[in-house]
Automatic annotation (TrEMBL):
It comes from the Eukaryota. Residues 87-109 have a biased composition (Low complexity). This is Zn(2)-C6 fungal-type domain-containing protein. The keyword Nucleotide-binding does not apply. InterPro entries: Sec_Metabolite_Reg, XnlR_reg_dom, Zn2-C6_fun-type_DNA-bd_sf, Zn2Cys6_DnaBD. Its main location: nucleus. Residues 70-156 are annotated as: Disordered. One of its GO terms (cellular component) is nucleus. GO terms for molecular function: DNA binding; DNA-binding transcription factor activity, RNA polymerase II-specific; zinc ion binding. It holds the Pfam family Zn_clus. Keywords: Metal-binding, Nucleus. One of its GO terms (biological process) is DNA-templated transcription.
Length: 743
């Protein structure tokens, strides 16, 4: 029986299936899956998973591999139909196109191919301590002549693309496969618009995405209908992505969009689109069923994985470029990664590193680099890119207990102005008028809550948090207590410096303010309070006395109450439900642990602090733990962590109730209080009407449960105070399914 064309292509002359290049070179077994094998998918190296048609032959002058020098890069080959139209030909800058065949293109470039010794190389941003700094002020080395100027020398618009670009047939084929994953565009536009309305972290102007979708819709039938046409478009995108994006101070938003849409469509904006589609699907998974596209898997989990894969591949296509679009793509990809895999995923940590490296490579940590050759709206977009990356870096570094990548000590980029996105992307006159109405610090005077309002305040709080992390993660400080009080004072000063309308109040829920805007303010409130919790922990740890413990307990109670508000108002915050696992783990869990341990210490007579209201505290902790349990079954990227936390906190609550019950029974029956308690049904489950749930939850993360016999090991030694318990949480291996705690 004859094999199919696909099978024939995958079988080598020796009768064996061809392996991808990474597996072949590493001499590892390949499962031969297309377009990406299982091993490369697991290693998150999809961009390198290519199947070479003849891996042991030398490359000849064929169309399979073209070497094109950037300096002599010809115009894009005309596609079989009309050139890709610009959505607005009057506002989109056009580039001339030159018709070249593949063979002619290769012939031309093979004669001009540069050797490694004489390749032009641009390292990106070079700071004042770099190897080129000695030539600062020299008219030759710092002049306008590109033949003598250092590559990357103080010019944000300088081309930052590789001098030699390799067009590989397999790479073009992979690009075509990624384009095949694009869903129907009217559906995409609706999903993304809903996401933009409510997202607190998106930094990209919506109009840029709309123009991109308009471009793709106009070429959908003619360029994406067949594999060959998709590969033609992929090759076109590679050529366009090799061109530098050059801006000027007088550029309008429409002209800026024209640099990466219409006939100038690039891989970077395609990658942004993939990531935003994934984020939109995670936010509104039920809407995916409305998609009428037979090519797309309407299972939201599989669909989101496809969008994440495509976004990752697009990033790999643009690794050597430095521009604003690359930052947008990496930031959007990071957001999708955190939603899909959770903040504890190492893939998130790696992508955060890539984002920080790109920030420094472009130089956007320096104010003069941000403002160089840029109009006002683009300066503000760059400031938002930096602020968003910095705040994300500080938050995830805090969550994982690791040093942040981006340090404010080395950054001079100022805060973005408190302007709504709609005003930011209008003409220069209206934008200048809006800026003139801001207060001297850059806040709006209308008491309006914009996305920029949230980003400004979050960045200010993150700068304080960076100092807190230095106290925790840096080398020992001789005058630690004095430094802690200094940072505490600064935290309060920063919080009091933001306008009153930015400071959260629970009364806002009855004020008519949109729920998603109140949610922004609640996040800022929790972020500020959690910095103080971390500082109070240091005071307690190093002998601050009962006063420090009282302040710690009071602040923890405020945070737990704030987290529970989300669940009280969950019907109004359905579109933010994906944020709840992060909020409950990042802010709520450490504070709930501190309160639970303090209740236990007070019950045993081991605490000198002010008594906590026992009934109220146990009720709040029971509700908190119940919410952990519900999240652990949600399928969110943080679900395994919530399952672990549910079991750990449930043990303490069970002990609080069981120990008192055992003490009462011992006093009644004249027996000694037991030192070890083998728990039956969870007290949390019993209080919430969910008896018997605990044994089922214990295996959610993939293991058999807390112990071999399904019981918890509870001894009187071990975690005797909240500090030890919290240290145990920080040092815990979050990937283990068996989380047995000794108390």
């Amino acid at each position: 029986m004859s094999s199919s064309p696909v099978e024939a292509q995958r079988v080598r002359r020796n009768g064996k299936l061809e392996a991808c290049e990474p597996c072949r070179k590493s001499k590892l077994r390949c499962d031969h899956a297309h377009p990406v094998c299982g091993r490369c998918r697991l290693r998150n190296t999809a961009s390198r998973c290519v199947y070479h048609p003849a891996p042991l032959t030398r490359p000849r002058d064929t169309i399979h591999r073209w070497h094109v020098t950037t300096a002599q890069l010809p115009g894009p080959r005309p596609l079989p139909t009309a050139p890709i139209p610009s959505p607005d030909s009057r506002n989109s800058p056009r580039t001339s196109t030159t018709t070249t065949t593949p063979d002619a293109s290769h012939s031309t470039n093979s004669r001009s191919r540069k050797t490694p010794e004489n390749q032009a190389h641009n390292p990106g941003f070079l700071g004042p301590s770099s190897f080129s700094a000695a030539f600062d002020g020299d008219q030759v080395m710092s002049g306008d002549d590109p033949n003598t100027r250092w590559p990357g020398y103080s010019d944000a618009s300088a081309p930052m693309t590789p001098a030699v670009t390799v067009y590989d047939a397999a790479r073009v084929k992979l690009g075509g496969q990624m384009l095949a994953l694009l869903p129907e565009f009217s559906f995409v536009e609706e999903m993304i618009e809903r996401y933009f309305q409510l997202s607190t972290v998106v930094i990209i102007p919506l109009q840029a995405i709309k123009v991109t979708i308009q471009t793709l819709r106009s070429i959908h039938k003619s360029r994406l209908s067949t594999e060959a046409r998709r590969e033609e478009l992929a090759e076109y995108l590679f050529r366009q992505s090799d061109k530098p994006i050059q801006t000027n101070p007088s550029m309008t938003p429409e002209e800026f969009y024209g640099l990466f849409t219409g006939e100038n469509l690039r891989w970077e904006i395609i990658g942004v689109l993939f990531a935003l589609i994934g984020c939109s699907t995670m936010t509104h998974p039920s809407l995916l069923s409305l998609l009428k596209d037979s090519r797309v898997d309407t299972n939201w989990t599989s669909f989101t994985e496809d969008m994440l894969l495509a976004s990752n591949v697009c990033i790999s296509f643009c690794q050597d470029s430095f521009n604003d679009l690359l930052l947008w793509m990496m930031h959007s990809n990071l957001t999708l990664l955190t939603m899909h895999r959770g903040e504890s995923s190492h893939a998130v940590w790696r992508r955060l590193s890539d984002l920080a490296s790109t920030i420094f490579g472009i130089g956007y940590h320096q104010e003069n680099r941000v403002t160089d050759q840029a109009p006002t709206f683009l300066i503000e977009l760059r400031k938002r890119s930096f602020a968003g990356a910095y705040a994300a870096d500080i938050s995830i570094a805090t969550f994982l207990g690791r040093p942040p990548r981006i340090a404010d000590h080395y950054a001079s980029t100022s805060l973005p102005l408190d302007l709504p996105n709609e005003i930011l992307m209008v003409n220069h006159e209206l934008l200048d008028d809006a800026i003139s109405k801001l207060d001297p610090q850059g806040w709006n005077t209308d008491n309006a809550i914009h996305r920029a309002t949230f980003l400004r305040a979050r960045t200010m709080i993150s700068k304080v948090r960076e100092e807190v992390l230095h106290l925790y993660l840096g080398n020992p400080i001789p005058d630690l207590e004095a430094q802690v009080h200094k940072v505490l004072q600064k935290a309060d000063q920063v919080w009091n410096s933001v306008p009153p309308f930015v400071r959260y109040s629970e009364s806002y829920w009855d004020s008519g303010i949109a729920a998603h805007k109140i949610y922004m303010l609640l996040q800022l409130h929790l972020e500020h309070l959690y910095s103080k919790v971390l500082l109070y922990r240091l005071i307690v740890k190093y002998g601050g006395g009962a006063g420090g413990t009282d302040l710690l307990n009071a602040t923890c109670r405020d945070i737990v109450s704030g987290v529970l508000v989300l669940y009280r108002e969950r019907d109004r915050l359905l579109s933010h439900a994906r944020d709840f696992p992060w909020v409950i783990l990042y802010y709520g869990l450490p504070c709930a642990a501190i309160l639970a341990i303090e209740l236990r210490r007070q019950q045993r007579g081991q605490s000198n602090s002010a008594p906590l209201p026992r009934a109220h505290s146990i009720r709040d902790l029971t509700l908190f733990t119940s919410n952990l349990e519900s999240i652990s079954r949600s399928g969110d990227g943080n679900s395994p962590l919530c399952a672990h936390a549910y079991r750990a906190l449930g043990q303490i609550l069970d002990e609080l109730l069981e120990e008192r019950t055992g003490l009462n029974q011992a006093q009644t029956q004249g027996q000694a209080e037991p030192s070890n308690v083998e728990l039956g049904p969870s007290a949390v489950n019993s209080a919430m009407g969910m008896g018997g749930i605990m044994p089922q939850i214990s295996g959610l993360a993939g293991g058999a449960g807390p112990g071999q016999d399904g019981t918890f090991d509870l001894s009187a030694d071990g975690l005797m105070n909240s500090e030890n318990f919290l240290d145990g949480l920080i040092d815990m291996n979050w990937d283990l399914s068996d989380w047995t705690m000794t108390l």
